Amino acid sequence: MKSNMYSLFIFFLKWHFIQCSQNNGAGIYLSGPGLKPDKIVLPARYFFITFSSVDEETYTSDWARNVAVEIKGKTQKTNYCRIWVNKLDRKDGTFIVRYKIYETCFNLSINIYYKSKNIEGSPVTFKGPILPDQCNCPTKDLTSWLTDYGCNNVPEQIVNDLKAFQAVNMTVEVKRIVEKYHQPESTSFCHYIIKGNEIFRNCYGRHVGFNMFADNILLSLTRKVKLPDVEMVINLGDWPLIKKNTELLPVFSWCGSSQTIDILMPTYDITESTLENMGRVTLDMLSVQGNVERPWSQREPRAIWRGRDSRLERLKLVDIARSHPDLFNVSLTNFFFFREKEEQYGPKQPHISFFKFFDYKYLINVDGTVAAYRFPYLLAGGGLVLKQDSEYYEHFYQQLREWEHYVPVKNDLGDLVEKVQWALSNDDKAHQIARNARQFANDHLLPQNIICYHAALISEWSKRISNKIQVQKGMTHVPQLEFACDCSNTEEEIHDEL
Q: Coil, strand, or helix at residue 273?
């Protein structure tokens, strides 16, 4: 009886605190690059709304119903600008608002309402022009653009990757790379040249379809800012190419390893999700956070994993799960590398929505052919990531800390059961690590961060090239898509047009 009375008393205090906060509208904060749409052009702009008085435990669906966002503007010819607005509820008193602009807007206003009233600081207004991402209107000065865009520091991974390269003659280096790695059945790569902010390439290998990912990020950057003339070779395969203690060659790859010295770029997966945000992809670093249905306390206390049979440890994971069904929900979704073992490790199970992973407290990350590219999305989802020790890494791994952002697991998964049992016995600590992981993702892995990383990498690499960059005969020109856009931006021109 006393326990019930105490619970009722605590519930009343929380309810009273929430009502007071709601009534006075205090403690509502806005942040994010979408609040600077004139400076930061993204495929989908985004910002955060934070209610300081709410967390996972005090959250109710009333918060979402009481928050509304309206973003509107004008074009040069009409009083209406086409804008798609999407509010993502993280169910902890914070919301992600993302919006996509389809034409050049003027007099843009961002209105945030709570209980049908503008919150303090709303509306946020901009005279414009506010450009859609498709506009080919590059800023002339890269240094100023990096500052305006929020790309304040050169990531340590870039510094380390480029340390060995000084005064590089790419005319010589490209020939050496082609001579050593042009093996059409096993490797594919493209030689890119950016000259006068135009993109050209030659590709080598039989399977070069992934050049679309490199094309798209370079096209996106050159629409935003005038890049320095630069020359680079981008590996289109999953595996890094340049072995340690061999000839030093400048090859850019999406994945690194302890045995190689390739120059790292963000993976094609997270880059595509950045460029296609609110487009054709459904999985991105923002949508993951807005599709978590359960708070930590309501998640199932088991570890989940789904994937194909691309590594022996994944088969071992099935064995472990079968021996501990109370701790794991694990299944293989496809057999390709170990087809002869399908009878033993099958039957294969259908895919589930990635968002359903976050119905569970514990999320297993095991390598595939290289690093598992789902890792950033797992970090963003608010679960505790159990990460296999690995020789492979992505561009951001150097900033992660064991036991702060994830729980490490031995490469052979020999201590996986022990780590799940630790999490069960230390729920508060596990929850804090999960919160740290999501904060890390928001600080380092959102679209603004991914574009900044690419821009900083190209900027720093261009300083190390010694040869005069010339477009070679026969190179393929990669053009911008046609898009009608007025790049005028002086106050006098805007006033006249309006």
A: helix
CA–CA dist 204, 326 (Å, integer): 50
User: Are the CB atoms for 88 and 97 separated by under 8 Å?
Assistant: yes
Number of domains in the chain: 3
pLDDT digits (tens, 9 = 90+) for 420-458: 999 999 999 999 999 999 999 999 999 999 999 999 999
SS3 call for 7: helix
Element spanning 466, H or E: none
Residue 14 resides in a domain: no
Confidence (pLDDT) at 28: 87
How many whole angstroms separate alpha carbon 235 and alpha carbon 180?
13
Going by the DSSP 8-state scheme, the letter that residue 238 receives in this structure is S
> Which CATH number fits the domain that encloses residue 303?
3.40.50.2000
11 DSSP 8-state letter: H
Distance in angstroms (rounded) separating the CA atoms of residues 415 and 257: 23
What is the Cα–Cα distance from 413 to 303, expressed in whole angstroms?
13
Both 232 and 327 in a single domain?
Answer: no
The enclosing H or E element of 382 equals: none
Any bridge partners for residue 4, and if so which? none
Expressed as residue numbers, the domain containing 307 is 285-445
Residue 370: pLDDT band by 50, 70, 90 thresholds?
A: very high
